[in-house]
Amino acid sequence: MKSSNRVIMLGDCQSFYASVEKADHPEYKDRPLVVAGDPERRSGIVLAACPLAKGKGITTAERLGEALAKCPDLVVIKPRMQKYIDVSMQITEIYKTFTDLVEPYSIDEQFLDVTGSMHLFAESSEELANMIQSQVQEATGVYTRFGIAETKILAKTACDNYAKKNPSGIYTLTKEMLPETLWKRPVSDMFMAGSKMTRHFTVMGLPTIGSVAQTPLGKLKQMMRRKFGKNSDIKAEMYWRIANGIDDSPVRPGTHQVAPKSVGHMITLPRDYAKLEEIKVVLLGIYIKTCVHKGSNLLILWRNNIFQVV
Ligand SMILES: [Mg+2]
């Protein structure tokens, strides 16, 4: 198989906006800090919380008022998006010293294909990830985590589900490991599966990622058609491929330039947001996440508690 020899990393920045602010404000080093939509008003929304703030129970996208109730001595900083974009690009430049195949995926996540260049720098992909991690930390003060795998989807999965919880911040996930690792996890942990889809899968008798992966694709399509109608085949195949870690897409460099293609991004919010103020801040976050490197063809769909930007 052509793709089986690839070495792909997803580098993710921990608490990105908050880490950038902490690096810029050493006086707040040991204080819980959040970047929030509108610090003057308690109705603002937390866009990023540093690990110390998260330790106090503060979560991204919660209301600032709630966060301050949990932690009255919280440092609250107004977002400086241009600064975060600049640091994101600086990190891209560091990644590019290790491979020319770097694809910004969002403002704080980037794919690296190091298949061809790894041997120039290190004995193993973990050793290389560790080197890159140190360089980014030294240059920007931002701590990065790396998921390593043979496809982009598995690298992303390795990062989100394992590297972030690993003391080293680095985790390699091979296809052979899937039955013993990812497949045992609840379907709610699956990439792209929001709370609604999770409920549907559970009702369909598919409570784990492995149960989705091991359902023959034809059968999964049938099951989803019964729930969502004829047009759900693409969705069924998408989830089936994600669960099986199948993804042939290459790491596409050069997406810093304005790309003609539109991009997609979806996040699930912890609750419904009704006020325009709140929505604007959340949208700003998504907008930055999806469009910073990719131009601004933007169509926003908002249904239930899911924003979709396509
Ligand atoms: Mg991150």
TrEMBL record:
Gene Ontology BP terms: DNA repair; error-prone translesion synthesis; SOS response
UniProt GO molecular function: DNA-directed DNA polymerase activity
Domain UmuC: 8-194
InterPro entries on file: DNA/RNA_pol_sf, DNA_polymerase-Y, DNApol_IV, Rev_trsase/Diguanyl_cyclase, UmuC
Domain of life assignment: Bacteria
Record PROSITE patterns: UMUC
GO cellular component labels: cytosol
Pfam families: IMS
CDD domains, per database record: PolY_Pol_IV_kappa
Family membership: Belongs to the DNA polymerase type-Y family.
NCBIfam families: PRK03103.1 (NF002848)
UniProt protein name: DNA polymerase IV
